[in-house]
Each structure stands twice: as structure tokens, then as C-alpha cells.
């Protein structure tokens, strides 16, 4: 059975339907036949008293037979059916005895029958005291059962010995009311399913029994003789019980319990009112008994009162227990049982409201486990939960009584220290680090853990949210600094994340409003000094911030995925500009476009590049894709395939920042590069450092031997340019030659086509001080 189906079975009410078994159908037919016979007797017989009593006996006997039939059919509730069958058997015995006794002249009552009718209630009390093994009756429920037993004992004392204090008619009515209250109490605590269905049927039977009992005595006191049609009031309840018992399937199909039935069973006020009514009946009966028999009545009154008082106390204790459990579930972490974030926020707020001194400040320590995700993935989430529980126990054992440990989420805990100083908080953090480093035995495994801790101290104007944020930033700073260390919060830690958040928000708007522009840095021929092409560089002039460095917004674009849209815009503008220049000047200049490693995450990167070329009309041979080593080690399996396909289409591939990676030489052999760009770190002061000169000379010679073109980046001095010319480097770019230019300035430069020897530009704009983050992209 599916879990959802099993849950449905457990919370549903059995279906009312006609019985399918032959025996059950026979019993149902017999019960209805007995009732029909009694009705016929009262219609056609002149003096039906004795025949009517016999049919009442048969009706009760049919209910007894139904109960014993259910004993064999419903093994799970056999004890209930057996005790209920005994109750009906007693009632039937009382009725048949009365039927024969009433045949004697002048006899209208039978003491023995009255005794049996009172005893009839006790087996039903035993039925209500039964509790399924899967549940546990609360103390208040047992006290209610004891109160019911006391009441029926009092009722027995009021009726016997003869002459009774109350009449037989009154005892029947009071007995029916008490039984109904007891059954309602039992129905309210019944488990959904067969248990609740059983007591639902029994409670309805008792309601019918009580109503018809009252109706019988009303009719007999208002003109209807004993033995008249009013006798139907005694047989109808038993026939009704037989029918609903046989037509209720406690083991077959189920249907959803109605909303109101569930609400009725779970309504606490119904239980309270019913228990109060039962207690009032017990104390009222005891008071009447005390009036006529002082000693037993006083004892009964005292017992009834004590039971009611105990029941009230038990219910109050139960409510307090439930309230405590509810409060605990709301304020405690369900996995580790330490405080949760709600309680943590409350405690921090309360402690910050107290006056603080230099030695009485509040400290918040944010503890993050190192490498927990690896352990959780390798050893399983159940083991990870056990590990978190153990860590919570260790932290709880290491604090003072006035301190607090809370689980913030995942593998992060918070320790709240009261009345402490910054020096004491730092020393405590070091003790926690030492504790975490200790070997840990868990589920037969030996583990070595470590933690990173960030802590913040309270200030006069701080609040709970700010302290948690500061400690959290300090913890992340500790992780970035190498882990397994403690770090106190410093205000500078917040500036970077806040700045990045602002950049992220503004960058989204900038992309939507097309605020990102493109500047172009010319690439010159070292030999002739003529322009051979350009490198497209993203430039952002913010309406309020002014110039935003690529070093600030490009990493944000890569982290947030906006690099795809940014790259598409730069690629389109660069290709369109290159085609415009080539058509206008009749030239064959190329356009270098940088591609970020994050852009290769898109499987449609080549498709997007081809689409951009088609839209702008630029031939593929004029486009050069610049990539760095980060692209090659990104782990994307289709990188080599994309580069090879791009080269087949006519595009050229450039390896940017060559010489700075771990294995750049192997890349020259394994990937289809056409151009190698020597990083500016090798070019700078080339003429003054023989070691640098040897490296650059070797790189140029190596590239020439592999039939690849070379471009030197970051040239700022004429001496560097002269060395590159001597080494045989083909192309160059840098501030000495030209800074990145706006489209208009680049157009003016192309018109003049000045020689490299006449250009001795020096860096003149702070916006171009960062060249390492120059990009143009495609997806």
C-alpha cells in the first residue's frame, strides 16, 4: 500500500453498506422481522402485552446475536463486542423475566428485572474503558471512567434495597443520560477509523435508547397503558443497533470522515461539558443519597467531588504539558533540541536591552562547520543529522548557564555569550575551535572536524539582526582566510558585499536600459605600425556612480549569470562596429572578443555567435575569440568541440594571458589556437630585466615554431616596444600605442592611420587602469 493510502485508511470512517455475508443478511432480516411482528401484534392483537414483551426480548436477543456474530468476524474488536453482547443479554434476560412475572394478576413490577436493568449498564462501562494498544488513555479519561462507575454505584444504592429512593422510571432515564455522557466522552478520544466508528454507532444507539425511553414514560403517564403501542419504544433501539452494526464494515473499504464528524470528535469543549455533566450527576445523586442515608451518601459525595477535582487538575496539567511541548516545538530546533532562530532573536533582543559595560557586553559567535557538505554527501544525510546532534551537544556542554546555543540553519550554529568582553569572547572561540579539532567517534567512525567562527560584540546602537549579520560576515571571512580560525567582525567586511549587491541591482537595470558601452583598443603591427584590428572592452558609465570599473561589475555578472546577456550585447556591438569600419574604409580589420568561462556553460554558445554574425553581416574570418586558461579548466566538456567548430567556420581563437597558467604549454598543443597573447606581466620592464626578456624571447620563438601569431599586451614604454621588435613579436597593444577608445575616437584614429612611431600616448584616463577584466562575450 502506498504511504498516502495507508494514511487515508488510518483517518477514515468505515462505510455504511448492506452486509455481504449470508449470516449477516440472515441476522439483518431476522431483526427487521421481529420489529415487524411486534408492530403487527399491536395492530391486530386485542391484548398484546405478553406478546409484545416477547418481541422486545427477541429484539434484544437479536442484538445479542449480532454482537456474538461480530466477535467471530471482527477479531480486532472482539472484546468490545463480547462485553456489549453480555449487556444486551442481561437486558433481554430482565425483559423475559418481567414478561412472565407480569402475567400474574396484579403484578406490574419485578425487583429482579429492575436489578438486571441496572446491571445492564456495567458491561457497557467496561466497553468504554477499553483502549486500543496503539493509543494511551490520558489520566483525565481514566478519572472520567471512574466517575461513571461511582455514579452507577450511587444509582444502584438509590434504587436498592426496596423501597427505592427513586422510581424505576426515573432510574431508567437517569441511567440512559449517564450512559450517553460516558459514550460521548469515549467517542471524543477514539482513534479515527474502526475505533471511532464503533463508538459512533454505540453513541447513536444510546441516544435513540434514551429518547425512546423518555418518550415511553411520557406516553404511559398521558393515557397510554402499559402493553400498548408505546412498548415499541423498547424494541426499536435494539433493532436500530442491529441494523447499523451489520451494515458497518469495520475491515473493508473506507470513506473520508466528514468535516463535522472530525471536528465533533476533537472538540475539547464537548469533552469538558460532558465530564462536568457526569460529575454533576454523581454529586447530585450522592447528595440525594446522603439525605436519606447520611454515611454512605457522604462517602459517595466526597469520592465524586475528589474525582472531579482530580480530573480538573489532570486536565490542567495536561494542558500545561501540551503548552510546554508546543512552546518547545516553536522555540527549539527539532533535530538538535537547541534553540532555534526565533528564540535566538528574542534572547539577543532581551540582552541588548540591558545596560552594558566593557566587561559586560553581549557577544554573538557564528560557528560554521568546515567540509560538512562533503561529509554529508559521502556518509549520508542520516549520518549528517547525527553529526549535527553531536556538535550541538558539545557546544551546549561548553557554555555557561547564562549563555545560549542555537542552530541557525544547515551546519551553522550561534553561541550567545552574556556579560563578557571581546577578549573573553575571543578566548572562548579559540576553545571551541580546539574542541572541534578533537577526534570524534560517531557510529563506529573516527572523524576529524574543524570550524570557522566569526563573532561580533554589542554596541549601544546595535540590534539582534545587525549582530547576527556581522557575526555571519566574520564567519565567512574566516572561511575565506583558510578556515579553522576565529575572526572578529570589522566594519570593512560589510562594505564589499553591500557594494556588490548595489552593483548587481544596478547592472540588471543597466542591461535592460542598454547602458553598457564598448571601447576599442587598437592592435598594431610591430613591424609597420599600422592597425591590424581591435579588442572590444566593456565600459559602464553609471548615471549616478560615474565610471564603474570592469573589475567591479564583471565578477558580479559572472556570479549572477548576467554575463550571458552582457556578452550578447558586447558581441553584437563589436561585430556591428567592425563591419561598419571595414565597409567604410575598405579594410580587413579584425575584432577580438573575450569569452568568459561562465559563458561556456551555455550549450548554445556557438549558435549565438553565428546568429550575431548573421545579424551584423560580419564575416567569420574577421572575428577572433579570446579565451583564458580558466575556460580550459572550467570542466565544460564541450569547450574543445566549440573551439574546433568555430575555427572551421573561419573564426580565429586567441589564448589570452599566455604564460600565467599552470600548463599553458600543453594547451598550445591540445587546442586549436591561432594567436597567443603574451601577458603584460612579462612585458612590463622588459628592457630592464634580462630574465623577463629571456622568457618573452622564448615564448615568441615557441609560438613561431608552432605557426601561431603572437600579440604582446600592456606595452607602456618605447624600450619595451623595441625589445619586442627585436624578438620578432608580430602584434602589440598597450597605452604606449593607444588607450581604449570610444567608437567615435577610434573612427577618427582610423581616418588618420598614424604610424606607431608617431604615437607616444600615455595613460590619460583612470577608466582604463584595469585591463585584466576586459571582456566581450558570446553565448
UniProtKB/TrEMBL annotation:
<keyword id="KW-0812">Transmembrane</keyword>
<feature type="region of interest" description="Disordered">
    <location>
        <begin position="757"/>
        <end position="779"/>
    </location>
</feature>
<dbReference type="InterPro" id="IPR035919">
    <property type="entry name" value="EAL_sf"/>
</dbReference>
<feature type="domain" description="EAL">
    <location>
        <begin position="500"/>
        <end position="754"/>
    </location>
</feature>
<dbReference type="Pfam" id="PF00990">
    <property type="entry name" value="GGDEF"/>
</dbReference>
<keyword id="KW-1133">Transmembrane helix</keyword>
<feature type="transmembrane region" description="Helical">
    <location>
        <begin position="112"/>
        <end position="130"/>
    </location>
</feature>
<feature type="compositionally biased region" description="Polar residues">
    <location>
        <begin position="757"/>
        <end position="767"/>
    </location>
</feature>
<dbReference type="InterPro" id="IPR052155">
    <property type="entry name" value="Biofilm_reg_signaling"/>
</dbReference>
<feature type="domain" description="GGDEF">
    <location>
        <begin position="360"/>
        <end position="491"/>
    </location>
</feature>
<dbReference type="Pfam" id="PF00563">
    <property type="entry name" value="EAL"/>
</dbReference>
<dbReference type="InterPro" id="IPR043128">
    <property type="entry name" value="Rev_trsase/Diguanyl_cyclase"/>
</dbReference>
<feature type="transmembrane region" description="Helical">
    <location>
        <begin position="81"/>
        <end position="100"/>
    </location>
</feature>
<dbReference type="InterPro" id="IPR001633">
    <property type="entry name" value="EAL_dom"/>
</dbReference>
<feature type="transmembrane region" description="Helical">
    <location>
        <begin position="202"/>
        <end position="219"/>
    </location>
</feature>
<dbReference type="InterPro" id="IPR029787">
    <property type="entry name" value="Nucleotide_cyclase"/>
</dbReference>
<feature type="transmembrane region" description="Helical">
    <location>
        <begin position="268"/>
        <end position="289"/>
    </location>
</feature>
<protein>
    <submittedName>
        <fullName>Diguanylate cyclase (GGDEF)-like protein</fullName>
    </submittedName>
</protein>
<feature type="transmembrane region" description="Helical">
    <location>
        <begin position="174"/>
        <end position="190"/>
    </location>
</feature>
<keyword id="KW-0472">Membrane</keyword>
<feature type="transmembrane region" description="Helical">
    <location>
        <begin position="142"/>
        <end position="162"/>
    </location>
</feature>
<feature type="transmembrane region" description="Helical">
    <location>
        <begin position="225"/>
        <end position="247"/>
    </location>
</feature>
<dbReference type="InterPro" id="IPR000160">
    <property type="entry name" value="GGDEF_dom"/>
</dbReference>
Amino acid at each position: 500500500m502506498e504511504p498516502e493510502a495507508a494514511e487515508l485508511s488510518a483517518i477514515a470512517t468505515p462505510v455504511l453498506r448492506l452486509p455481504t455475508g449470508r449470516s449477516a443478511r440472515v441476522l439483518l432480516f431476522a431483526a427487521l422481522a421481529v420489529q415487524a411482528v411486534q408492530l403487527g401484534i399491536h395492530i391486530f392483537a386485542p391484548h398484546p402485552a405478553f406478546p409484545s414483551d416477547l418481541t422486545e426480548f427477541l429484539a434484544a436477543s437479536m442484538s445479542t446475536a449480532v454482537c456474538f456474530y461480530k466477535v467471530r468476524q471482527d477479531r480486532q474488536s472482539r472484546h468490545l463486542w463480547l462485553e456489549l453482547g453480555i449487556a444486551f443479554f442481561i437486558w433481554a434476560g430482565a425483559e423475559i423475566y418481567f414478561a412472565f412475572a407480569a402475567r400474574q394478576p396484579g403484578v406490574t413490577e419485578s425487583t429482579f428485572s429492575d436489578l438486571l436493568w441496572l446491571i445492564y449498564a456495567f458491561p457497557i462501562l467496561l466497553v468504554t474503558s477499553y483502549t486500543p494498544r496503539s493509543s494511551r488513555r490520558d489520566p483525565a479519561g481514566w478519572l472520567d471512567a471512574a466517575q461513571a462507575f461511582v455514579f452507577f454505584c450511587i444509582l444502584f444504592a438509590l434504587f436498592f434495597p426496596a423501597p427505592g429512593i427513586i422510581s424505576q422510571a426515573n432510574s431508567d432515564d437517569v441511567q440512559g443520560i449517564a450512559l450517553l455522557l460516558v459514550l460521548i466522552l469515549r467517542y471524543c478520544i477514539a482513534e479515527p477509523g474502526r475505533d471511532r466508528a464503533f463508538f459512533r454507532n454505540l453513541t447513536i444507539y444510546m441516544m435513540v435508547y434514551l429518547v425512546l425511553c423518555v418518550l415511553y414514560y411520557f406516553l404511559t403517564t398521558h393515557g397510554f397503558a402499559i402493553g400498548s403501542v408505546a412498548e415499541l419504544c423498547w424494541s426499536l433501539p435494539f433493532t436500530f443497533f442491529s441494523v447499523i452494526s451489520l451494515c458497518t464494515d469495520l475491515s473493508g473499504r473506507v470513506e473520508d470522515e466528514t468535516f463535522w464528524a472530525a471536528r465533533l470528535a476533537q472538540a475539547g469543549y464537548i469533552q469538558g461539558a460532558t465530564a462536568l455533566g457526569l460529575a454533576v450527576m454523581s454529586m447530585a445523586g450522592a447528595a440525594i443519597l446522603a439525605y436519606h442515608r447520611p454515611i454512605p451518601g457522604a462517602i459517595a459525595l466526597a469520592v465524586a467531588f475528589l474525582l472531579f477535582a482530580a480530573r480538573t487538575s489532570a486536565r490542567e496539567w495536561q494542558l500545561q504539558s501540551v503548552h510546554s511541548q508546543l512552546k518547545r516545538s516553536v522555540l527549539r530546533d527539532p533535530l538538535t533540541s537547541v534553540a532555534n532562530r526565533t528564540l535566538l532573536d528574542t534572547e539577543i533582543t532581551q540582552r541588548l536591552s540591558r545596560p552594558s559595560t566593557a566587561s559586560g557586553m553581549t557577544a554573538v559567535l557564528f560557528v560554521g562547520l568546515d567540509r560538512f557538505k562533503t561529509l554529508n554527501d559521502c556518509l549520508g544525510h542520516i549520518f549528517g543529522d547525527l553529526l549535527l546532534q553531536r556538535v550541538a551537544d558539545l557546544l551546549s556542554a561548553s557554555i555557561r548557564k547564562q549563555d545560549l546555543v542555537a542552530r541557525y540553519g544547515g551546519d551553522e550554529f550561534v553561541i550567545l555569550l552574556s556579560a563578557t568582553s571581546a577578549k573573553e569572547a575571543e578566548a572562548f572561540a579559540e576553545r571551541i575551535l580546539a574542541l572541534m579539532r578533537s577526534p570524534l567517534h560517531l557510529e563506529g567512525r573516527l572523524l576529524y572536524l574543524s570550524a570557522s567562527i566569526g563573532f561580533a560584540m554589542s554596541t549601544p546602537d546595535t540590534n539582534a539582526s545587525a549582530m547576527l549579520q556581522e557575526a555571519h560576515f566574520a564567519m565567512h571571512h574566516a572561511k575565506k582566510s583558510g578556515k579553522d580560525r576565529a575572526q572578529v567582525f570589522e566594519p570593512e567586511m560589510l562594505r564589499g558585499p553591500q557594494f556588490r549587491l548595489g552593483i548587481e541591482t544596478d547592472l540588471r537595470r543597466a542591461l535592460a536600459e542598454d547602458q553598457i558601452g564598448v571601447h576599442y583598443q587598437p592592435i598594431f603591427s610591430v613591424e609597420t605600425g599600422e592597425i591590424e584590428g581591435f579588442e572590444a572592452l566593456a565600459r559602464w558609465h553609471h548615471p549616478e556612480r560615474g565610471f564603474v570599473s570592469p573589475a567591479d561589475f564583471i565578477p558580479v555578472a559572472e556570479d549572477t549569470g548576467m554575463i550571458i546577456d552582457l556578452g550578447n550585447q558586447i558581441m553584437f556591438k563589436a561585430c556591428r562596429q567592425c563591419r561598419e569600419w571595414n565597409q567604410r574604409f575598405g579594410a580587413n580589420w579584425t575584432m577580438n572578443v573575450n569569452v568568459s568561462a561562465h559563458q561556456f556553460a551555455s550549450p548554445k554558445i556557438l549558435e549565438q555567435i553565428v546568429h550575431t554574425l548573421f545579424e551584423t553581416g560580419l564575416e567569420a574570418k574577421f572575428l577572433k575569440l579570446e579565451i583564458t586558461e580558466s575556460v580550459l579548466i572550467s570542466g565544460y566538456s564541450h569547450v574543445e568541440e566549440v573551439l574546433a567548430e568555430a575555427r572551421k567556420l573561419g573564426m580565429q581563437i586567441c589564448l589570452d594571458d599566455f604564460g600565467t597558467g599552470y600548463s599553458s604549454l600543453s594547451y598550445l598543443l591540445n587546442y586549436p589556437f591561432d594567436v597567443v597573447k603574451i601577458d603584460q606581466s612579462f612585458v612590463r620592464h622588459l628592457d630592464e630585466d634580462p630574465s623577463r626578456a629571456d622568457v618573452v624571447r622564448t615564448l615568441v620563438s615557441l609560438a613561431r615554431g608552432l605557426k601561431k601569431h603572437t600579440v604582446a599586451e600592456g606595452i607602456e614604454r618605447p624600450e619595451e616596444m623595441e625589445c619586442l621588435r627585436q624578438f620578432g613579436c608580430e602584434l602589440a597593444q598597450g597605452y604606449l600605442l593607444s588607450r581604449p577608445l570610444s567608437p567615435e575616437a577610434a573612427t577618427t584614429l582610423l581616418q588618420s592611420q598614424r604610424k606607431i612611431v608617431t604615437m607616444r600616448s600615455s595613460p590619460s584616463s583612470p577608466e582604463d587602469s584595469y585591463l585584466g577584466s576586459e571582456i566581450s562575450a558570446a553565448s
